[in-house]
Every structure is written in structure tokens, then in C-alpha cells.
Design brief:
Structural class: alpha+beta
Number of domains: 5
CATH class of the largest domain: Mainly Alpha
Helix content: 55-70%
Shape: globular
Radius of gyration: 30 Å
Largest sheet: 4 strands, antiparallel
Distance between the termini: 60 Å
CATH superfamily of the largest domain: Multidrug efflux transporter AcrB transmembrane domain
CATH topology of the largest domain: Multidrug efflux transporter AcrB transmembrane fold
Strand content: 5-15%
Number of strands: 19
CATH architecture of the largest domain: Up-down Bundle
Number of helices: 21
Length: 744
Amino acid sequence: MKKSKAVIILLIILLATLGIGYIDIWGTDAYGTASASDISLGLDLAGGVSITYQVVGEENPSDTDMADTIYKLQQRVTNYSTEAQVYQEGNNRINIEIPGVSDANAILQELGKPGTLYFIAQTDDAGNQNYSIGSSGYYELNKSIDEMIADGSIVLYGTDVADAKAVSSSDQMKNVEYAVSLTMTDEGREKFAKATEKAYKNGETIAIYYDEQLISVPRVQAVLADGVAQITGSFTYEDAEKLASTIRIGGLSLELEELHSKVVGAQLGQEAISTSLKAGLFGFIVVAVFMIVVYFVPGLAASLALVSYIALVVLLLNGFDMTLTLSGIAGIILSIGMAVDANVVIFARIREELATGKTVQSAVKIGFDKALSAIVDGNVTTLIAAVVLLLLGPGSVKGFAQTLALGIVLSMFTALVVTRWLIRCFYTLGLKDPKFFGIGKEHKVTDFLSKKFVFITASVVVILAGVVVMGIQKGRGNGALNYSLEFVGGTATTVDFNESRDLDNLNAEVAPVIESVTGSNVQIQTVQGTNEVIFKTSSLDVATREALNQALISSFGVTEGQINSETISSTISNEMKRDTIVAVIVAIICMLIYIRIRFKDIRFGLSSILALTHDVLVVLAFYAIARVSVTNTFVACMLTIVGYSVNATIVIFDRVRENMNLNGKASLEEQVNRSITQTLSRSIFTSLTTFVMVAFLYFLGVSSIRDFALPLMVGIACGCYSSVCLAGAFWFLMRKVGKAEKKN
């Protein structure tokens, strides 16, 4: 590479990074730039719309009907945001919170009135038309719904539909056609068979009526006895998906009516966002200084590449219109750690090559080539988990998976492309002396395997301690873990203050009063355009509610009539828990299959899974012993630890595989110990840099962020420990058992 070309490339990279950074962080909307302020934020960061529905005609609907309705509504509102929440309020109310939106009326209009879907025969038993084309050119009803219910013209209700989804097919000319596929319940199948038999015999249609309008009037072309049908027409995919979604929302177990809607403020407040940004900035500065001090010129290149990585993340978050929440920030933190990790692996390889006497240019090329397999395998396994979670996980997990997947792809690009070009540019500009890159030193091999049973015993003791504490706490009636409102529900106290209060003031002045009375952490939401504030706490008995009311009256001058309390259900339903568990299991299986294919040995995969299971159990024990609040970020925290642990373990196993191919005569124990020793600096440095990023979040963040950051710090340390001390030991023991079986 010529010096002039290197200067041009270096300037392009730097200017592009600074340009993107300017657009991302300081850009304005005047020219349509994608500034950081345009990123869609979740309800915890930016607020959104809250809608309350009430069951029509029933004061005490069954728990089954309420749970079914909540679950189906959750599936529906995920179209607006993956972070949308649906939960029960009181006996017969359902509350929906949709982050990142501000137009309640538009959402209400699109949602319609849940639970009012009817399938109407074209004619009644007397041959009278139930609907016909009116003067407007559209189908209109000739009778009221009540009249058609009375004369049997309503052939099915929304509750008779088990599922509705958009599907596609190709005609003979390979043109794609879209339709809506309907599947009826067992009871609905019989009704549908009778209705389609009559309609087909008479050449009639069956209309679908929802929210006071006919949304589709398909002609019946066959008797459908199996309860499966397709609605065809000149649909685009969006048209088909919208119709399918409308049918699903109209098929709820209960009929709902809107009680009220409001635009709510953020839960964390401007202070939380600003402190998080400061924490991220300080953490990045420390990491950048560390990389430069330890790795010299490559460290400078990595730091500049990391700047471009952060700028690209912000730009693409905006470009893909992703909703950023606290759990999404977890995904970004993990991907930053993996971006640093990739660079550390590369730089260690470069130093090893320089130690053998190779030139800088040759060492850089070989270092990148040798590090490629470890980087790809480590990132792909985590990416597989992210994709599975994105496809199968519930809303809150999808938000995490989106940012994680984006971060992984970008971190690989910046590490393998941007960093490489920057190093080449610096080399061409005259930084050619090996001392600018560092020369590796041969370290004495540490015998980690000789202590394997000590390590395993220590881990078992910690995990068992967690199990014992959970059993004791559950026996005392406190719950095995310190579950937050999202898991167990609680009490929502709405206070109409005499003056407007911002969230930071509420956190500083009002929250301590409420926490002192209730002994519970409090979540705060403001209601925009009013002086109302919603305080969510654990479930309060009558005496505590009264004490809280008196404390609010005496401290803030409100009256009894300005305070209203209601019981709310958990926002994390059993279905969401089930979907999360299924998604995680599928992700682990997929990772296991990938590792088996890449490493040609299933024991590598099994050892990785054992190591990450250990990390999850240890962090769970920490949650139990320290009584850290288990919030809706719990799942994201655990998944971050899983991704981090797998990536770290893969790097070590990649070195084991390489050493076995290079020196097959060495004993298995020696090869494992050598591999762990060779990657030890990588394990420590990567864990340290990621730990620093999270530590700044913990020390500078507000309480809700600290509840998330503290277990994540424990998980990072635990992931480093399990990768170094346990993963290789697990694989070694499995190999020894396998050999013993073959001898027998």
C-alpha cells in the first residue's frame, strides 16, 4: 500500500466515523438526519401510550378467560412494539402499555373494539338478505346484530377462530399471491361446516363483521368440513396481515370496551438516561486507554474502530426503527464486549507471530487469519441464539435479541475490516517497528486441570447455597427469589398532585416517602398533560394502603379524593415465561448443533452448555442470596451471560482444536492446559473491559439500572471463571470417559 493511499483511507475512515457520529449523536431533524434523539425508546426510557379496557357485561370474568384475552392481546400489540406490555388491573380490566408511541387515538382506532367479531350468513332461514351493497358502493347490514343473533344468522363468533395468519403461494406464472388462512376451534369446526355447506349450496357469501363494519365478504367455494379456510383476493402482504390480525383481536374470549387512554411518561427519567450515557462514555474512555496502553498501535486502531462501531449501532437502530429499552442496552453492552474480544484475540495472535521472528506485515496477516475461526465461531453461536430468540421469544426478549444481533454483525465487521485497514494504514505511514505492536512472550504452562475437582466443588457449593437460600426464603413465605411487580403483580396508586412534577423530582422526593411506608421498591409513571402520577408497588393490604394515603396527604397536600389504588397483575404472564424457556432451549440446541458441526466433536458443545448452565445457576444463586430484585430485565441479563460465556469458551476450544492438529503427540492434559494458558490474557482482558463498562453503569446509574448491572457484573466474572477453570475440565473428563469406554 502506498503512503498516499494509506492517508486517504485513514482520512475516509476517520471522517466517516466522525460524520456518522455527528449525525447519530448531535444531528438534527431539520434535514431528515438520523440523530440519536430519533431512536425509538421503550416505555422505561421514553414513555408511550397506556390504554385501559374493561370487560363488557361481566364484573368477575373467569381467570382462564382473562389470561387467554391478555395473551392474545399481547400477541396483537407486539405489532406496535416488541416491548409492549399487557396486564390485568382489578377484576375485569386489562391495561396495555405501548412504548415509543404518542397517538392514543390512532392506536385505538386500529385496535378497534376487541371481542366483537361475527361471521354472518348472507341470508336468514326465510331467505332475507342480511347484508347487501348500499348506495356507498360497499356492503352494509340490513339488520342489527341483535336481530341476526336472534334469527340464527350469526353462524360463528370470533371465539370460534383458533388462529388467523397471512400466507403466501405462487401461481403458474410464479406470481406471489397472499391470502388469510383461518383455523377454527373444535366447536367452531362443526359450525363452520354447516355454514359453508349452506352457503356453497346456494352460491352465497359469509361476511366477517368487526367493530361495526364488514371487513371481508368472501364467497364460499367449497364445503369446509375440516375447519380450515382461506380468504383470497387482491391482497398485498400488509393487507393480508392486517385482516388476519383484526380477526385475531376480534376473536378474544371476552368483549372489551375502552375505559380510558393516556400518554404516560418514562419510568426511568432523564437522570437515568443521562447517567447511563455518562457511564457509557466513561467506560469507553477507560477501555480505549486500556487497549492503547496494552496493545499500542493495534490498540489505537481498535479504539477508533470501536468508535465507528458505536456510531453505526446508533445509526442502524434508527434505520431499522428498533425500540431501545434497558434490556436492549444489555444487548449492546454484550456486543461491545464481543467487539473488544475479537480485537484482543487478533492482537494476541499477532504478538505470537512476532515472537517467532516474522515481520510486522506478515504477523498482522497471519494473526487475522488464525483468529478468524475463533471470532466467527464465537460470534455465530451467539448470533444463532439471538435469531432463535428473535423468532420464538416474547416481546421483551425480542427487543434484547434485535440489538444483540445487530451488535454482533457490526462488531465482526469493525474488528475484521475496519481495525485491519487502520493497522495497515498506520503501518504504511511509518509505524513499522515491532515494538509498536508488542512481541509476545512464552508463558509457562499453568496446570489448570490439576485443580479441576477443586474448581468443580467450589461451584457446586455456591450453587447448592443458592438452592438452600431459595428453599429457606420460600418456606418463610418471602418467595424463592425477590420477584418484582412484573412477575407477581402489585398495587397501582394513582395520585393527582396539585402541581406538575417531573420524574426526577418524583424519584428524589416522593419515592422515598412511598418506599418508607410500603417497604417496597416503587416504579413511577407520569401521565402527560396532567398532574397525575402512577406509583406501582408490591401488593398492599388495606392498612398499608391507608397509611400510604395519609403519608401522601400530609407530605404533599393532596386530598383523599385525589388518590386511587387498584390491584394489578404481573406483566410477565405464564405464557411469556413458557415462550422464553422454549426459545432458550431451542437456542441452546441450535448452538450445540453448530459447535458439533464446526468442531467435529459433540463433547465440545456439551462442555460449552455445561459451562453456561453453571454461569446461569451461579448468577441465580446470587439473585437468591443477595435478594436482588428480579425485574423484567432478568431474562436479558441471563441471556447476556449465556452469550458472553459461550463466546469465551469457544475461543479456548478453538485453541484446543488447533493445538491437537499441530501437536498430536502431546498428552491431552498438556494440550488443554497449554490452550487455556495461551488464551488466558484474552479471557482476563475481555472480561475486564466488559466488566468496566457495566461497573460504570452500576456506580453511576439509578436503582433500576443497578438492579440490572450488579448481577451482570457477577455473570461476567463467573463467565471468565467457567471458561478458564471449568469448560476445558469438562471436555477433558468427557474425553477420558470416552477413551475408557472404548478400552472396555
